[in-house]
Design goal:
The protein has 237 residues and is an alpha+beta fold. Among the domains are: 58 residues, no CATH class; 67 residues, no CATH class. Strand 10 and strand 11 form a beta hairpin. The two termini are 37 Å apart.
Length: 237
């Protein structure tokens, strides 16, 4: 489980929000993707229940529609707030009530970062101008390969292979492709078996260390990063 603090886009008042807090648990498992919501007056009460497992109180709602969490954690890195908040507001304009600003999602260098729940897709460098088209694609059950960073629960090599396969095969449907196995050739190359509606394919993924750079607005100079990219796709050997 990963903990995220969320708030609605726009101006924020200090103190407890009117009507209490929203607390949601998202299950991102394929075929069971849901968000279970509770409304609580005191976060300490439900925290104590979570320490023992699942909350004992009845949920206020069980939701499986796309929810958009946009990283706006300016204290972690200014890029996240400067680039994330306009995206959150643009999405709020086209999907009112389905958008939250959230704390750090990782990958500051990809800001604006966005997480779609409950399915668990991560997107980066999302521009506000594409908010409507992006939300239309996600709501239709599709992914957007050009902006996609990965999917929760998969290792980086598998994520890169899945995105590459969606893009090269022209299959946008979220659940149409799945990673079956990863076969590491060496430190710089791997073969990933991906199942498609027409059978399995093999995606070759390369890994390389990028030249030192300043990756984020407040980050230090001379930081190396690891990049994974699909390079070819073909029939199983």
């Amino acid at each position: 489980m990963r903990l995220q603090a969320i708030r609605r886009p726009g101006k924020h008042e200090v103190g407890m929000p009117a009507g209490g807090y929203h607390v949601g648990i998202a299950d991102t498992a394929v075929g069971a993707a849901t968000i279970t919501w509770w409304r609580v007056d005191d976060l300490a009460d439900i925290a104590a229940e979570l320490e023992l497992g699942w909350p004992t109180r009845p949920p206020a709602e069980i939701d499986d529609a796309p929810l958009y969490l946009v990283c706006a954690h300016g204290r972690h890195d200014a890029c996240c707030a400067l680039r994330g908040r306009p995206v959150a507001q643009a999405l709020q304009n086209v999907r009112p009530g389905r958008v939250w600003e959230t704390t750090h999602l990782g990958g500051d260098r990809f800001a604006a970062n966005l997480l779609v729940l409950p399915t668990g897709e991560l997107y980066g460098r999302v521009p506000p101008a594409l908010a409507a088209d992006f939300a239309d694609a996600v709501d239709a059950g599709n992914i957007v390969p050009a902006l996609m960073r990965g999917r929760i629960g998969l290792q980086p090599i598998a994520q890169a292979a899945l995105i590459y396969a969606h893009d090269r095969l022209g299959i946008p449907a979220r659940d149409a492709l799945s990673v079956m196995s990863v076969r590491q050739v060496d430190a710089a190359l791997a073969h990933v078996d991906v199942m498609t509606p027409s059978g399995s394919v093999v995606v070759t993924v390369a890994a390389e260390t990028k030249a030192p750079a300043q990756l984020t607005c407040r980050g230090p100079l001379g930081v190396k990063s690891r990049e994974y990219r699909g390079v070819s796709i073909g029939a199983p050997q």
